[in-house]
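Input/output pair, single chain:
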Amino acid sequence: MSIRVALSHITTYQYDKSIKLSPHVIRLRPAPHTKNHIVSYSLNILPEQKFLNWQQDPFGNYLARLVFPEKTNILQVAVDLVTDLKVINPFDFFVEEYAENFPFTYDKVLKKELAPYLKVKKPGKLLAPYLKTIDKTPRRTVEFLVALNAKIYSDVGYVIRMEPGIQTPELTLSSRMGSCRDSAYLLVQILRNMGLAARFVSGYLIQLKADVKSLDGPSGAESDFTDLHAWAEVYVPGAGWVGLDPTSGLFTGEGHIPLAATPEPESAGPIYGFAEKAKAEFSFHMGVERVLETPRVTLPYQGEDWDRIIRLGDSIDKRIRKNDIRLTIGGEPTFVSTENREAPEWNFDALGFEKYSKSEQLIKRLGKHFAPGGLLQYGQGKWYPGEPLPRWAMISYWRKDGEPIWNHPYLLADDRYTGSATTEDARRFISVLGSRLNIPSKSIHTAYEDNLYYLWQEANLPTETELMLDGLNTYDKMERERILKVIDSGLHREVGYTIPLDYDVSLSAWISDEWSFRRGKLFLIPGDSPIGLRLPLHSLGGKQYYPYPEDPAAPKPSLPKAKELGQSPFLATNYSYSIGELHTRTALCVEPRNGNIRVFLPPIKSLEGWLRLIYAIEQTALETDIPIVLEGYEAPHDPRLNRFKITPDPGVIEVNFHPSSSFGEIVEKTQILYEEATQLRLTAEKFLIDGRHSGTGGGNHITLGGASVGDSPFLRKPSLLRSLVAYWQNHPGLSYLFSGMFIGPTSQSPRIDEARNDSLHELKIAFQQIDSSRHTPPWMLDRVLRNILIDITGNTHRTEISIDKLFDPGSPTGRLGLIEMRAFEMPPHYQMSVIQQAFMMAIICKFWEDPYYGNPINWNTELHDRFMLPYFVYRDFKEVIQDLQNSGFGFLSKDFDPFFEFRFPQYGICYLDGMEIELRMALEPWNVLGEENTAQGTSRGVDSATERVQVKVKGFHPERYRLSCNGYEVPLQPTSVQNEFVAGVRFKAWSPVFTLHPQIPAQQSLVFDVYDSWNHRALGGCTYHVSHPGGLSYQTIPINGYEAESRRISRFWTHGHKIGKSLPPIRLENKAFPSTLDLRMVTFK
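Output:
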């Protein structure tokens, strides 16, 4: 986003008497090669009686020549200019082939033209040896220039020098200090001695305070400032003049505004002239002021706006408490790494070493803030079809009543480091634990690897197995590595120990067993997972004992105090004796792995039982002095226990955050989460290779419910869910403003009317059932909507509003009273996340007070026509804001401008004869293609080849003009503003291997013309390039938002229209999509 700034520069000479002034030359107007857009410029001179002529010197610089006919006691030069600071990539240039590598020689014609800039002064006694220290190894020219610029920066210190003139290179090198002009002149002389044409540049330097402080170095200016500056420019064939600033060691960017560029510094001075002898008082003032700032993700809100939003959130909080809604809000924010953006684990793979390491650091950092006396467990995460192993999950627990769960943090081993624990330590640990649980030692079983299986597998291995691993597919490679790992550790040794264990809620007792196996010993199922996941349960005889699960909706008593957990003796019952053929099929396991003792927790259905087990484990670790790592099954879901966890998802890490019950909690938690993630080089944003900005791709789903199932506002007032579903369906802007790039019927959060054609009819019938029932039982709400709020495959989770955790009668974990709003992409700034949650709080409060009974609207193709355009999305969203304002919630539409700018970045604006043409990114649903058979199985590709842009024109008169794109008329639709129109242009941006229309070529550029029907020709226009217009093929994604913005800006030109007289643009009729020009339809015309 550009920032418009105003620069003020006033230089004053106050004389003690009236004197004569010679003609003066002023070089304080931005030079013609300035890359910034200069919005306005003014030069004011005192005395007022003078003659001013604008000229250009032999090098193209602007000069103001002043003649003073009368004596004066003052000379004041005042400059005021306004400029747009847009990010400029200093490396975005083309280099001629012969000059790609240094050293090179200019061709004869060019060398003659550059003669003034190649003139070399004989090096002095210090410069000559210094030139020998410069690395002249042949390499890319850009790399040489970067290294040389950095060398001057490191060798010459910066000093403010008020004396006039330029130091010689000898003086600069002798003192190793110099002002900006001294370092620039030194660099010019060095470049010329290297055979490169160079010139001296004087200009303005504008530096603005960074929105976000840097973690890796200086963050730049502490406040906005400007000053006169100097740097060098070197001529690179193809690229032209390239700016090098030795004072900072950087190439010049948007903050450098050149005023004069000349072969010698004497010709670049800002003010040149003479005055009659007199005493003079010299003063100057320089300042820069931000005039216009568009909201941006690094600074979405100014201070006063954020304070108002905080007050608004607090007022919504009070209203929610007044209405006794008992709302809690949780979320699933996702993050990616800033250090290794190209790695598969941060793009499409679910697992990765760096992802695991950063997740572990993050959960420990967050645990210090949110989990006092808490416990960290390394559990098992989700296991999706096609994945060889379950994913990991790191879970942090703590009690809501403030009592500690774990009192000795040093007894939790650090999983990042390898310890020295042995099998004997594991045996000793489980023996003491068994005694604490009153479980007889004969119930402890030793676990072994299956000798016969691995010996058979070893016989089938090739001779040089290790050398063959690289050529295997994923599954075979993992299997071979697993076999080698197990064989290397030994087949006949003990690998761990188990205790059959469960907890009976009705008896408040531990249930144990004596397992027996036909082979006499417990041989594990082959693998390298924790032994708790490899128990041969299928080898056990008899029937399985199933403890009665607790109802999550049942009222819960207070938990015992931490010190009370060990006061009463642990009871143990052996069901093998008391009930005969019933057997316990769950077990606690202890094993050494990676040098640490791992304790695998069995699934415990009761929180009291789970806490007692954790207490016994901690006391055992304390008695044996053995630090442990906890893994295994999660603690039971219980409103008395808080938890958050970090899990891996494709390309991201996901933080399943614990719910907040107040707005103050939301602000605190969200800010801490983002700040701690930033410290670990984790970010909430990604960039596509063409510079488009997006969230992480993993979403930021918002979970709504209550502190307990009974407190859930959706179960206490079923009309609330009915209102939410109907309102979201009636307002497509809510579905698309906050969502990610992947939208449509096969996305992760499809709208209900993007799935089955008859879904709206069925939804209407469901609404009738809810509306007609005075007392809707919780299970009925689930049954009525469960098979409607689904995607096209029937998945109840992958939908815009998911109710699979609301009240599913068939699943205890599905009866949590929660709904999940899934059409929310990860906001890049914590303040944007906070206002999203405040928005949802206001929506829930509004519908609690005044239920919404609107019927479904059949949008037909409008969803993927009008509502793909930013204008219609935001117009619809403003209606939502108006509804909230009418209900007493003080949101402003500008509060969501950061989301608009993030979701629909501006590509550029063109001004033409009183008209304005603006291009913005628009939405495009991605198609999922047909099945493809591969070596790994059957898959369906996602076609992201098609893109869409919105074009909006202001001051446009359709009676005379037509807007065309590549010769075809754009179907402009009127907006609510007179002479303002908007439309979408759909095109194929690239050609992937699998795509919907493989025969249609990708577009190279979109040329927009304003066609004048009176004169039968194009009046002018602009051009949007689908890829870099200079043929620069990016191989890596942008490293930050600055580079991403520069890539977007480089693809928009404010020129390029059809030449000469022509026929009117061709009109295409498309009744299904009247707001969109689909260029794919005209490719073969």
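Residues 303-322 form the longest helix (20 residues). Confidence is low (pLDDT under 50) at residues 465-473, 575-580.
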